[in-house]
Amino acid sequence: MKPETFFLTDRYPELGKGPVPLEPYVSPEYYQREKAQIFKKTWLQVGRVEEISQPGDYFVKELAACDTEIIVVRNKAGQIRAMHNVCAHRMNQLVYDKCGHTRKFFCKFHGWAYDLDGKLTGVPDEDCFFDMKREDYGLAQVSCDVWQGFIFVNMDPQPAQSLAEFMRPVYGEVEGYPFDKLTCGFQWTSVVNCNWKLALDAFQEAYHVAYVHGRSIADAIDRSEGGSMRPLDVVCGDLHRRLSLAGNQKSVYGNPKAATSGGAAAEQALAESAQTRPIAAAALRAAIGSAKHEFPLDALPKGVNWTNSENWLFDINVVFPDFYVSLRPNYCQAYNFRPLSHNKTLFEGRVYYPEMTTAGGRFFLEYMKVALRDVLLEDMSTLERTQRAAETGAKSHMILQDSEILVRHGAHVVDRLVAAAL
């Protein structure tokens, strides 16, 4: 008698098991509702504290889904502030550069000046205005807070939840991951002609890995009897979702702790890859002992590799609505899938590693940059084709299997919030 199949989806009956509608992926009207009910009311990740480490450091972030552009700046007290990039006088964009350092912001149209908190501090020919009070004409503020070094903003001046309340139901036990000991090793930015959810979906399931990544990292995964990569476990919260995956500890990509841990972990990966992937083996060999920090598995917070799998590869964390963080033993990937329109997405990807102290360590980073670039290109090779196919109307729904539960959960959450306003 065939054993009864256990489905992860059974834990979340509210998600159902039926086909998922395609309209949210192709409808301009649906996207307008997403903008109003999700992006203009939700905490959105926009950067890291290291980007503005000193008072006066700032960066500018365009948020098309919120119909605005914001300035994120560290003030004189060391606090991080966010405000709309709109002068209070004649609506000129206040800051033209995408990043920089300043003691004040000056409008290039009429010279109005604002301090690092957005307060109006200078107006040429101020006595010619009619009973104007400076305190009434500062920059429009944006709610801003920090979680584990990641900067978040919310267009709602009085968010329904604090950032801590937003994050902790699913990610409280992730707090303490050594983000502060990592630095951005490399990054990419690309515009993809597809819906933002469609792009994110390609990264929040591993069913595709053995097929799409057959020539790059397929040797690094743990395959099921059916040949695909099944999750160790999943967590679906009210908004956020998580998935944990196992890997082949005998491969360089599947055993990422080998670079910092050395010892048996490195020997195992080197022995396996020396013949099949000699460049990967050379990069790993050069990197051993060069990382500034080591990250013993038992020092990671309990929310990372929460199943305690010996073959753990990484955890996929999707922070609603569009922020993806892949946590690994000694590095992490942080991706944004930011909508520009109903069928256009800005992909921003950053990969954080411990600082490397030797040339060999830098060589390893360059190898990983190329390896991960190829993985990303494989992931994105299907996206625009899928969008065009979905827009033909040939099919009205997509069918999902159990390992694609995060895709189902994401569609469920978005539709629930959009429908709540109808």
Q: Quick summary of this structure?
A:
The chain has helices at residues 23-26, 28-39, 163-171, 196-201, 209-212, 258-261, 263-276, 278-287, 359-380, 383-391, 405-419; strands spanning 20-21, 44-48, 57-63, 68-74, 80-84, 99-101, 105-106, 113-114, 120-122, 141-147, 150-154, 182-192, 233-236, 241-246, 312-319, 323-327, 332-341, 344-354, 397-398. It is α+β, with helices and mostly antiparallel strands.
Q: Which helices and strands appear, and what pairs or packs with what?
A:
Blueprint: E1 20-21, H1 23-26, H2 28-39, E2 44-48, E3 57-63, E4 68-74, E5 80-84, E6 99-101, E7 105-106, E8 113-114, E9 120-122, E10 141-147, E11 150-154, H3 163-171, E12 182-192, H4 196-201, H5 209-212, E13 233-236, E14 241-246, H6 258-261, H7 263-276, H8 278-287, E15 312-319, E16 323-327, E17 332-341, E18 344-354, H9 359-380, H10 383-391, E19 397-398, H11 405-419
Antiparallel strand pairs: 1-19, 2-11, 3-4, 3-6, 4-5, 5-10, 7-8, 8-9, 10-11, 12-18, 13-14, 14-15, 15-16, 16-17, 17-18
Helix pairs in contact: 7-8, 8-9
Helix proportion: 25-40%
| Strand-pairing-aware structural class | alpha+beta
CATH topology of the largest domain: the name is Naphthalene 1,2-dioxygenase Alpha Subunit, Chain A, domain 1
**Strands in their spatial order, largest beta sheet:** 2-11-10-5-4-3-6
Could you explain how this protein is built, in words?
This protein has about 425 residues and is α+β, with helices and mostly antiparallel strands. The protein folds into 2 domains: about 45-160, 3-layer Sandwich (Rieske Iron-sulfur Protein); about 175-420, Alpha-Beta Complex (Naphthalene 1,2-dioxygenase Alpha Subunit, Chain A, domain 1). It is about 25% helix and about 25% strand. The chain is built from 11 helices and 19 strands. The chain has helices at about 25, 30-40, 165-170, 195-200, 210, 260, 265-275, 280-285, 360-380, 385-390, 405-420, and strands at about 20, 45-50, 55-65, 70-75, 80-85, 100, 105, 115, 120, 140-145, 150-155, 180-190, 235, 240-245, 310-320, 325, 330-340, 345-355, 395-400. The protein has a 7-stranded antiparallel beta sheet. The protein has a 7-stranded antiparallel beta sheet with strand order 12-18-17-16-15-14-13. Strand 15 (about 310-320) and strand 16 form a beta hairpin. Helix 7 (about 265-275) packs antiparallel against helix 8 and helix 8 (about 280-285) crosses helix 9. The protein is globular and about 80 Å long. The model has no long low-confidence stretch (mean pLDDT about 90).
